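the two lines:
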Amino acid sequence: MPVRIQTQDFDAGAEIAALRGSNSKIGAVASFIGVCRDANGGGAVAKMTLEHYPGMTEKALEKIVAEAKSRWNVMDVLVIHRIGELKPTDQIVLVVVAGAHRGEAFAACEFIMDYLKTRAPFWKKEQTPSGARWVEARVSDDEAAQRWEPPKSSAA
Amino acid sequence: MKIKLLYFAGLREEVGTRGEDLEVSPEVTTVAGLRALLMNRGGAWQTALAQGKALRVAVNQEIAQAATPVKPGDEVAFFPPVTGG
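prediction for all of em together
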């Protein structure tokens, strides 16, 4: 399965080795790991809880992976996203893309993360010294995702 | 017609429920109509679903728009903009 939602931690090295297997066509592996910070927007974060929409999350991520594979010549993709309670330094998300060459692997990896941040139904709630708060969506994340939109045909 | 409604994250907390099976009049045919129906409950519903509030809707687990049709048996979810990753 290219997409996994789980509460437990992941071992990026083991996941990458499993994805590569013995495929001698692979010449590039790009990966991204998102990690829980101890501060956000100037406030201290003691821990966070990740909620998601079971069913839609998997569908949304599978659609993003399928789109990445249609746009770039990459062979294998893995996305792992954790849910539940996480504390600073904990790993949150892993994206691994394996392909023949680095350019396409890098681009597909960044695309998947940008789309995941704006289209996959996850929500973070942070515990801070002044109480719990839901993380607000960032305009910069929308802008990052928009970079990948196909150029609109200009009306004459 | 019966619609399965789901609420997530901050919106779930505001309205105080994770979801419900709702019997809806056949006059409600779109996401916008459903939203208006829920807002008519007043109180937290009106505030949480108010126009201008950042809100996303999914119909049958696909992102939907105000004009997206709703049919009997559909699963409709309301939630804030997503913040994973």
